[in-house]
Amino acid sequence: MTGAVATVPDRTAGPGPAPLSRSRRLAGPALFVAVGLLLVAVAPAVLSPFRLDLLGKYLCYAIVAVGIGLAWGRGGMLTLGQGVFFGLGGYAMGMHLKLREAGPGGLPDFMVWSGVESLPALWRPFANPVFALAMVVLLPVTVAVLLGLLVFRQRVRGAYFAVLSQALAAAFVILLVGQQGLTGGTNGLTNFQMFYGLDLYQPGDKRFLYLVVVAVLGTMFLLAWQLSRSRFGQLLVAVRDGEDRVRFLGYEPAVVKTIAFAVSAGMAGIAGALFVPMVGLLSPANLGIVASLELLIGVAIGGRFSLAGAVGGALLVNYAKTIFSEESADNWIYLQGAMFVIVMIWAPRGLAGLAADARAAVRHRRRPPSRSVAAPIPSGTPSANGSAPPGSADPVDPARPVDDARPADQIEPTGVPAVAAQRGEEPA
Amino acid sequence: MATLNQLVIGASIGAVLLLIALGLTFTFGQMGVINMAHGEFIMAGAYTAYLLQPLVGTQSVLVALPVAFAVAGVLGLILERLAIRHFYGRPLDTLLLTWGISLILQQVARDIFGAPNVQVRAPGWLTGGLDLGGVRLPYNRVFIMVLAVGCVVAIWLYLTRMRHGRRMRAVMQNRQLAAVSGVATERVDQLTFFIGSGLAGVAGVALTLIGPVGPTLGTNYIVDAFLVVVAGGLGQLRGAVIAAFALGILNSFVEFWVDNGASFAKVVVFAVIIAFLQLRPQGMFVVRTRALS
Amino acid sequence: MPRGVRKPLVMAVAAALLLSATGCAEDPTAASGAGSGSTIKVGILHSLSGTMAISEVTVRDAELLAIEEINAAGGVLGKKIEPVVEDGASDWPTFAEKAQKLISQDKVATVFGGWTSASRKAMLPVFERNKALLWYPVQYEGLESSPYIFYTGATTNQQIVPGLDYLKEQGKKSIFLVGSDYVFPRTANKIIKAYAAANGMTVLGEEYTPLGHTEYSTVVNKLQQAKPDAVFNTLNGDSNVAFFKQLRSSGITAAAMPTVSVSVAEEEVVGIGPENVAGHLVAWNYYQTTSGARNDTFVKAFKGKYGAAKVTSDPMEAGYNAVYLWAESVKKAGSVEVEAVKKASAGISLETPEGTVTIDGENQHVFKTARIGLVQPDGQIKEVWNSGKPIKPDPYLKGYPWATGLS
């Protein structure tokens, strides 16, 4: 099975094949603007407040998806604990909003019914809006950096990392649930009405919040995209595809991975903070194993190697979940499960991968095909998973011209194709 | 005395962990398949015992052991043939795929057996307990421990004494070399998946003695099972054994010493595993090779 | 220039799909509202998937049975009731989302739903914001009285306090608290501790385990060390099965150390295995064995619709009652309009399987008779004590001096 793989240069594991013509080069930004307009101008006009709220919720998940696209798609780190960071950001924001609502000297509602008499010290600083906003990003980033340095330095990767991050989500939920007086327990934090001066019960204010979410998603997307096409982004892909080789070249892969992991955690934190006012509640159910997996499955279905695919996938999966469950409350789990299975089997690189294959097929019809692109089993993925099994990695890797797969527009103007060779000056 | 009792309890928790993780050391350890549906194979085993009950009466647990092994094994084989074989070499994709399958299997169980838990009666000779000078050892725990040890011994014999088992080890250690030496790796993969899933079925039967039998049975155990395998080292039988008992005993003592410790114990176990992986990033035992990664 | 935005097509297509489809999903007929047309839509919102489905599916079944019966008898206000079933999926935000969907898309007249406190807390703001009605059918921890929720299950003074009274009456001096780690057990145990302090009982220990926990040997060992006269059990769902199986195999008998459970009903007994839990006590307001012609017809109808092997339980009965109580209020109000129904509901009294229940207009809870039951080897529950008459609901325990510090 590996022989076939070796002859197929990896066109898909990387950020993407080269857009060749000027019109194709412009297609990206044009669509970015078009989708932006659709979300900003069209959606609020045609959707009912209820549907707009739902779309806002999906967009929050899409922000997480951008981060996962970076960490998993580019960095090969399958994080099954993204809900933890989502939750840290969400709780930081939720605590602030609860304190705002309770007023000076007041206690959040759940503390009253949990029998807490005075405000716990942990809560006090969150009364400050600036502190709370800072914590939305700093908390998840700090946890990610600590965890990342611990596990990546020890070269814990692939499946080990996946299982560990999943256990982290499980442990985090247990901790949250156990501290009912401090966190609201299983109920979580509920019933938010005000968000920085917005009245969440008013459709008009809610619409504004929705626009904020769209704007944040756009910003995060551009940030991730900028990051992934920077030298750092190339280094990250290099670490994903050949961690040891990058190490031999004098870089510290643990640092590269930790940075990407921390950025994705920060994005998840921001998403969590927006989720709280958008949905109006946050509970441990939003950050556990299942929630974390659902965040991931959207990215997988959309296509993890493409940031746009990740965003589209997150929207699609959550939208499908809503529609399936509305259409058939009894059987929607079958539909959802079948969707996961079908996409994973027939479109392993997600819908973005299918789109790429289709485009490639069209291109190949124009010039005689030199290689099979639409191979049912995609080639690049073993390495992309970070831990190729002993079987397939060895024969593939040395033969695989990694840089051949790098699209022309991804290569820095210096024209030096090798990622690491561009800068020997300082390890990242 | 309470401490001694806790030690016994720890060992029995360890036996449960070992049983649920044993199959995973093969499917996860050898084949790199992160099988989230492993929990649902456990569930299938438990429901097998339930279904056999009207046919064979209260001894159904004994009869169910081999039947559940076959049922869960065949389910695993079907899964392997239909889906997972497309995914070798992409362990992380298998996680998402099998998660989708586990959702479906849970819903299937709900539609067939109903959402509420069902009852599997334990045979009369498993209901009492052994009194060892103040330390009480319930028979069902003894049974689970014996079963766990029996499974380990059987697997060990299989891996070391039988031709098929040795092939399995060969594929585990170096797939390419095994393939060029004439081992039909694909057949070995199927057999491995059959055995790994079958062991989940056996665990499911054992769990009917101490826990609930319902559609979400598997989700209660799956994370613990993965932690045992990760701590023990992929594909390492002795690693899994030691990790399961170490985690079981750790769990039981933390829970006993700390007031309201059940939640705390889970968090401690997680912290210990992270710390342990700092020392041994590949788990307790590693197949030493000169390969880089 | 975002040259790297490589597969924008997908995103655009997905977004377009999303918009067009959601646009279509706006059902034009829904605008006709619940009051007009030939049917009255009501929402049914329970977990049909996920861990809570174990408990909630049968509550939905009971509610659908009530709707069917009312329709067979001519419906309300001359219209048939049309249930719209949604799945809360054991996920609290989903409960909130589906509640909003039922209210704003389906324009239901009312919603019957929820089980866990967390799901109720998640839905509460939705109903208050939309001024819509929720009927919540499960016993709960009290300390709540939303003007837009009707509570047809027991509050604490109709279940937990009578349970404690019974233990006191039996001369139990020391108790041990075992519960799942979530809001109901923690609040319940706070009440129990206050009660114990005021009534000369000692609480020897308090243990919480995560939801879905299945390893109880350590807890059982702690029970053996502490040797309490009785155990007060607030474990939820699956955990009860593991707890009772392991309690029994450790050699602790119901005679030596009885447990009082507040979340173990007939259905849970089936899952635990009657022989594992026989002889232990439970506290509820209804059992399948509760005598009365109204209960006989309910049990018969339920078995007729869902199978002779099915059992009925307290939460199912409370859900069944909720539908009837709502229908009665609608008839009295002559309208399905929320404020009119709320107003009409006060004081409505109905003959139900558990006996006469009356809606307390003050807090929208219902008067219920408390019953202590003993689990029988055949899986049924035999009543051993009851409060004699329906107890007035007191969600904040205002009428209990020992409870002043609680809320």
From TrEMBL, chain A:
Pfam families: BPD_transp_2. Residues 365-428 are annotated as: Disordered. It is found in: Cell membrane. InterPro entries: ABC_transp_permease (IPR001851), ABC_transptr_urea_perm_UrtC (IPR017778), LivM-like (IPR043428). Residues 400-409 have a biased composition (Basic and acidic residues). It is a multi-pass membrane protein. Keywords: Cell membrane, Membrane, Transmembrane, Transmembrane helix. The chain crosses the membrane at residues 26-47, 54-72, 130-152, 159-178, 208-227, 259-283, 295-320, 332-356. This is Urea ABC transporter permease subunit UrtC.
TrEMBL record, chain B:
InterPro entries: ABC_transp_permease, ABC_UrtB_bac, BCAA_transport_permease. The keyword Zinc does not apply. CDD domains: TM_PBP1_LivH_like (cd06582). It comes from the Bacteria. Its main location: membrane. Keywords: Amino-acid transport, Cell membrane, Membrane, Transmembrane, Transmembrane helix, Transport. It is a multi-pass membrane protein. This is Branched-chain amino acid ABC transporter permease. The lineage of its organism: Bacteria, Bacillati, Actinomycetota, Actinomycetes, Micromonosporales.
